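PROTEIN DESIGN WORKSHEET
SECTION A - STRUCTURE
LENGTH: 480
TOKENS:
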């Protein structure tokens, strides 16, 4: 497998992240925008700032809490601190817009329920993200276009479809194990996991016909594209991360378009399913829709999958008794028992180290969440991290890592909903991501796996880059 350069050396610099909102505002010459879907915001009875309860937190004039929310160091801690000071819901401003931050399982459920109302909310992303993901991405679409697109895309990602990718996933995990076992000294588990997940996802997408050199080039371009997600939008500077990301996107899009032309129906690849799936009206995805959603569901998903796996290795390192318990489970022949235990463990990993800490929606009609009015034109920020890390009613003893928490949890899939975005916009790639993660853990912890120990003296604190990873890359040494 092609090894990625350590992200700590090539990731976006903090000053770029901090400049992002200012540069968008002044260089774009317009406000931050939502994806184009639907008409202008509806008239609001809460038209003025004065007619709503006062803002409870605003760190800076104009910018408000933008820097805390977008900073990879503070994305989660900002929500935890705000919840402790102001309660589950508070008002501020984010990205030059007045905003309501929403935490708490009950409050999130109430807010997400509003999304079922026609024209109540729509997707919200800065223009730079729209260009990186593409305007036809599920992330950018809202209303009927989103629902139609989701039906087509989801058909390629349902559990039945994911089961057809198992052989490819197993091959990718076997390569990962061999690569790890070949290391003589310390190595970064984060970079090993990122390389393995990207390689595996590319093979699921294109099949075995993709050559090793093509895979290597794609890995490098996808990595460059990913760096652009948290970079300042300096696309007018050819050497900036943003400009490099856009050029990488163009190269990858060209490759995908070529594969679409030669794609054969029923060849077992994810790309084939995306190309030939039809809805009840016989409509298929356009070439642009396929390209944009490959970036969304495949390439972006590799970072979150690698993030959940690196957090899993970190948790297992900190809890050796749990590691031994799961090794015994993974030695059993009853796969249903193994899957059930790994599902429970991964659920707790996602709760304590959420790879996607928040999401934003632009309100188009006046709403109310937890008795707090949210006028049209405001942002609703779903505080997933503040919920998963703090909501003691939903997650008793939230500061504790209780790996089998879901065994006695009678509240269904609420945890997974919060970890994967929740509501009608829940990530359709969650089944594929879970399958990859469980396969890695099952093989590493099983009889043919390996044991490891952490290198001393490293920084194990985690930071969003954009996925959540240990600062020093989780340096490990395998036990012989």
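SECTION B - SEQUENCE
RESIDUE ASSIGNMENT:
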């Amino acid at each position: 497998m092609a090894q990625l350069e350590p992200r700590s050396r090539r990731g976006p610099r903090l000053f770029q992240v901090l400049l992002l909102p200012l540069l968008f505002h002044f260089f774009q010459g317009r406000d931050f925008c939502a994806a184009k879907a639907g008409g202008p915001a509806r008239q609001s009875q809460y038209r003025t700032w004065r007619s709503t309860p006062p803002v409870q937190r605003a760190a800076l004039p104009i910018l408000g809490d933008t820097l805390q929310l977008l900073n990879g160091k503070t994305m989660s801690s900002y929500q935890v601190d705000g919840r402790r000071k102001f309660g589950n819901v508070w008002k501020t401003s984010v990205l030059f817009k007045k905003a309501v931050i929403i935490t708490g399982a009950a409050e999130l459920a109430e807010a997400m329920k509003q999304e079922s109302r026609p024209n109540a909310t729509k997707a919200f992303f800065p223009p730079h993200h729209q260009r990186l993901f593409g305007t036809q991405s599920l992330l950018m679409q809202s209303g009927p276009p989103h629902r139609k697109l989701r039906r087509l895309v989801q058909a390629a990602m349902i559990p039945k479809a994911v089961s057809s990718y198992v052989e490819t996933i197993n091959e990718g995990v076997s390569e990962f194990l061999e690569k790890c076992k070949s290391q003589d000294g310390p190595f970064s588990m984060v970079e090993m996991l990122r390389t393995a997940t990207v390689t595996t996802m590319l093979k699921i997408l294109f099949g075995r016909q993709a050559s090793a050199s093509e895979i290597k080039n794609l890995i490098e371009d996808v990595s460059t594209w990913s760096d652009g997600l948290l970079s300042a939008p300096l696309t007018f500077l050819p050497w900036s991360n943003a400009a490099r990301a856009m050029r990488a996107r163009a190269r990858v899009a060209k490759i995908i378009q070529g594969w679409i032309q030669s794609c054969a129906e029923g060849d077992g690849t994810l790309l084939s399913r995306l190309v030939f799936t039809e809805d009840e009206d016989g409509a298929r995805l356009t070439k642009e829709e396929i390209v944009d959603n490959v970036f969304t569901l495949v390439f972006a998903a590799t970072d979150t999958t690698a993030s959940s796996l690196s957090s899993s290795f970190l948790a297992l390192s900190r809890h050796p008794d749990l590691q031994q318990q799961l090794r015994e489970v993974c030695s059993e022949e009853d796969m249903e028992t193994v899957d059930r235990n790994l599902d429970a463990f991964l659920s707790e990993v996602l709760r304590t180290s959420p790879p996607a800490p928040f999401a934003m929606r632009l309100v188009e009609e006046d709403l109310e969440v937890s008795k707090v009015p949210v006028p049209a034109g405001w942002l609703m920020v779903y505080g997933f991290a503040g919920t998963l890390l703090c909501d003691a009613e939903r997650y008793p003893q939230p500061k504790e890592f209780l790996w089998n928490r879901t065994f006695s949890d009678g509240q269904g899939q609420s945890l997974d909903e919060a970890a994967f975005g929740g509501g009608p916009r829940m990530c359709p790639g969650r089944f594929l991501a879970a399958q990859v993660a469980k396969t890695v853990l099952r093989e590493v912890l099983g009889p043919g796996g390996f044991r490891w120990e952490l290198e001393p003296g490293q920084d194990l604190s985690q930071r969003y880059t954009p996925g959540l990873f240990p600062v020093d890359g989780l340096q490990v040494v395998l036990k012989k």
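SECTION C - NOTES
The first strand starts at residue 89 and ends at 94.
The chain is about 50% helix and 10% strand.
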